[in-house]
């Protein structure tokens, strides 16, 4: 398979995130991707490629709003303009417009703009964030283009991850929604029904929001129950889609502590939904934070299980774009990711 990895990913390297009320070292670190690349050296899965340029802005605008993209492109310079000493710090949001507040008037104040375009304080933004996120989007788009050109599978190996990013907001370590960009690229390339299957531990709220009113992209997510698990405010089973999209979103929340047999049975429900939809291509949002050793998650999958996850998904027989999402057991994430790929191609 073609594997597009992000040569600029390490330009996004956060110092601290707000986690359970305290600033702690970031979980989403450059080492994660380097471990996957190292494992791919040991167990090659195909051609390792890098995109040669950032994507055309018009392709990003298929999924994200123009004013959000303008904000991301200029956020770092604005942060430093507030105070030159900020150049030594990451930018984190601290104030948000909740129910009843105005989101239509863009504030001039930088902290207020950060809050308007985000939903948590766990996602630091720094000098290289925009370059890294754009090149990551280029990986996802290149993977989709490869599948449109006839490849059975392609992998976008990139960070920062994407599935929490919505049409006009960042959060959950995500800025541009790579899986949604790939799904939209498959649609724009002429594939009529595309399914996104999100197996990250956390609900794929951004992807759900992007496609919630649409019947041409089915979104399915298996995740920790939002009553106790991040992102908390979306991901319940009764969210089935709206308007034209009614019936085209499926959430399969599971309790913290869920083990492999239950998780796998739930995967079968997800795959049945993808089959029932008549999907002609699949985007797999591949979070590896369902691993038993993950420091911020609560499922109990083991390394060997990921091969079976891949094989079960491959049984759909669909052309597939895989995007790299979460997975914070850094030393094991390479083995787990490549196990998943091995199962997919077996
Ligand atoms: N302040 C992904 O796996 N943790 N994102 C809580 C809240 C956020 C996980 C931070 C977890 C985000 C792509
Ligand atoms: Zn996650």
From TrEMBL:
Signal sequence, start to end: none
Entry keyword Metal-binding: yes
The keyword ATP-binding is annotated on this UniProt entry: no
InterPro entries the record matches: HDACs, His_deacetylse_dom, His_deacetylse_dom_sf, Ureohydrolase_dom_sf
Cofactor(s) the protein needs: Zn(2+)
Any matching Pfam family: Hist_deacetyl
Domain Histone deacetylase: from-to ranges: 28-341
Top-level taxon: Bacteria
Keywords on record: Hydrolase, Metal-binding, Zinc
UniProt record similarity statement: Belongs to the histone deacetylase family.
Stated name of the protein: Histone deacetylase family protein
């Amino acid at each position: 398979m073609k594997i597009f990895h992000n040569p600029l990913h390490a330009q996004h390297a956060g110092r601290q995130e707000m986690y359970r009320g305290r600033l702690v070292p970031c979980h989403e670190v450059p080492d994660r991707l380097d471990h996957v690349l190292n494992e791919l050296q040991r167990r090659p899965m195909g051609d390792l490629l890098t995109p040669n340029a950032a994507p055309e802005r018009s392709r990003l605008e298929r999924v994200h709003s123009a004013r959000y993209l303008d904000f991301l492109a200029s956020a770092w310079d604005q942060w430093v303009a507030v105070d030159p000493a900020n150049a030594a710090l990451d930018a984190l949001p601290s104030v948000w417009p909740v129910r009843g507040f105005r989101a239509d008037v863009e504030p001039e104040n930088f902290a207020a703009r950060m809050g308007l375009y985000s939903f948590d304080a766990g996602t630091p933004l720094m000098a290289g964030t925009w370059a890294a996120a754009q090149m990551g989007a280029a990986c996802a788009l290149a993977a989709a283009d490869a599948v449109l050109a006839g490849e059975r599978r392609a992998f976008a190996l990139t960070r920062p991850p994407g599935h929490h990013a919505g049409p006009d907001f960042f959060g959950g370590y995500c800025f541009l929604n790579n899986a949604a960009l790939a799904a939209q690229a498959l649609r724009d390339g002429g594939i009529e029904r595309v399914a996104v299957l999100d197996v990250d531990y956390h609900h794929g709220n951004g992807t759900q929001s992007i496609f919630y009113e649409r019947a041409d992209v089915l979104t399915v997510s298996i995740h920790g129950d939002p009553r106790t698990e991040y992102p908390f405010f979306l991901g319940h089973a009764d969210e089935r889609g709206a308007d034209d999209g009614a019936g085209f979103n499926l959430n399969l929340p599971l309790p913290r502590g869920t083990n492999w047999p239950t998780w796998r049975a739930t995967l079968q429900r997800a795959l049945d939904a993808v089959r029932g939809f008549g999907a002609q291509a699949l985007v797999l949002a591949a979070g590896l934070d369902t691993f038993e050793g993950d420091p911020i998650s609560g499922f109990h999958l083991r390394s060997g299980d990921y091969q079976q996850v891949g094989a079960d998904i491959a049984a759909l027989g669909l052309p597939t774009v895989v995007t790299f999402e979460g997975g914070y057991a850094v030393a094991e994430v390479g083995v787990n990711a490549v196990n998943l790929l091995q199962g997919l191609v077996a």
